[in-house]
Amino acid sequence: MSDLLARHRAVIPTWVTLYYDEPIEIVSGRGNRVTDSEGRTYLDFFAGIVTNTLGYDIAEVREAVERQLATGVVHTSTLYLLRGQVELAEKIARLSGIENAKVFFTNSGTEANETALLLATYTRKSNQVLAMRQSYHGRSFGATSITANASWKNSALSPLSVYFLHGGDRHLAQFRGLSDDDYVKVCVEDLRHTLATVVGGDVAALIAEPIQGVGGFTAPPDGLYAAYQEVLAEHGVLFIADEVQTGWGRTGQNFWGIQNHGVTPDIMTFAKGLGNGFAIGGVVARGELLDALHATGLSTFGGNPISTAAANATLDYILDHDLQANAAKVGERIIDGLRAAGARLDVVTDVRGKGLMFAIQLSSPEAAKRLLEATKARGLLVGKGGLYGDTVRMAPPLTLTEDEAEEGLNILIDALEEIS
Ligand code: PLP
Asked: What range does the record give for the signal peptide (predicted)?
């Protein structure tokens, strides 16, 4: 065990996840590659933790942050006007597709979801919430309540009454043979049945990830959430899209993952990739809805000058370079390549994804662990997840080049062959 790992074990809780038998310490990054303390370089197919949308050390982001640092203001009270915050809110409001939208900034996805839950339950005067099975929404009391996997939460204690819906995946045997249309029909029937029988009284909101992130990048058929929204609208239930992993063009198809379903949500939450590694999250919703949280206040660090400088530069870069189109093109090449390899390798049970958000499901959690080690040994960083921990997830920077895509794909195929 390295000295740093021993020190980590001594002072960091045991449940904090660390990848690899011998965890690595990243000490530098350039482009879409990082280098560890032993001098080994890796192509990063997980973009940090779906955070480094533009990879590492992008001049535009570094210079924007340096310009802000040069003013001497790392942080000032969020009680004052902050130009960068207003500019960022204007951009996100415009991009959200939500009418007369307003934005509230937080420091993380968890806080963003807490704010969305508060907004929905307060304005709808109900603490009943619908969420999806196998969802992950964060680590706070409210966010773990709407998270649906026993191994991702500490208890079932909850400040909310939560009912979990089918639709995010097809783990159950009764769903597997169904066409997309039939699957959507069964799920909508389940939603209607839940609203009619399980739920007593009004429901505040449904919260859903357009593609389940930690759940293993399982995606419902496009259109499922539009069908849900139709039913929910009949009951006045708000739709919250958790775009923490799926926003900023990552899925290639649309700027927001929920747009792949033809849904304009009432509330959208975001975080992770917006600051290219700087901590920033937030909530965007119709102005009159967001304004209804009338208790005055602020977030001490939410929307601070450094994170908004990074986020403005990141967002401008994504739009100026049409990285959504790049995600579609490069992602398709990788997904096609993985599907072809998966078809001839028994260890692969599924390949799925959209744009630069794709996953390989393996025959067992042990196989996923071996693939993680085999890719690391070949200089590629990937993520893990899935309901049973049997899925290797990848979400490379949206700046991934075709050559890097090819390199990563070849490493993955080689590593899959080794573990087969
Ligand atoms: N929502 C989703 C979909 C996530 O994947 C995550 C984190 O992985 C969160 C919320 C929580 O975000 P954070 O870790 O920034 O609090």
From this structure: none
Interaxial angle between packed helices 402-419 and 323-344, expressed in degrees from 0 to 180 and rounded to the nearest 10: 20
Q: What is the pTM of this model?
A: 0.97
CB of 240 within 6 A of ligand 1: the answer is no
Q: Where are the alpha helices (DSSP H) in 57-108?
A: 59-70, 83-96
Pocket test for ligand 1, best of 139, 245, 299 (most atoms within 8 A of CB): 245
Answer whether 215 contacts ligand 1 (Cβ < 6 A).
no
Residues facing residue 353 across a β-bridge: 358
Q: Count the helix, strand and coil residues of the chain and give each as a percent rounded to the nearest 5.
A: 45, 20, 40
pLDDT tens, the chain, 420 aa long: 899 999 999 999 999 999 999 999 999 999 999 999 999 999 999 999 999 999 999 999 999 999 999 999 999 888 899 999 999 999 999 999 999 999 999 999 999 999 999 999 999 999 999 999 999 999 999 999 999 988 888 877 888 999 999 988 888 878 888 999 999 999 999 999 999 988 878 999 999 999 999 999 998 998 899 999 999 999 999 999 999 999 999 999 999 999 999 999 999 999 999 999 999 999 999 999 999 998 888 899 999 999 999 999 999 999 999 999 999 999 999 999 999 999 999 999 999 999 999 999 999 999 999 999 999 999 999 999 998 899 999 999 999 999 999 999 999 999 999 999
The CB of 221 under 6 Å from ligand 1? The reply is no
CA distances, 397 to each of 91, 204, 376 (Å)? 21, 35, 17
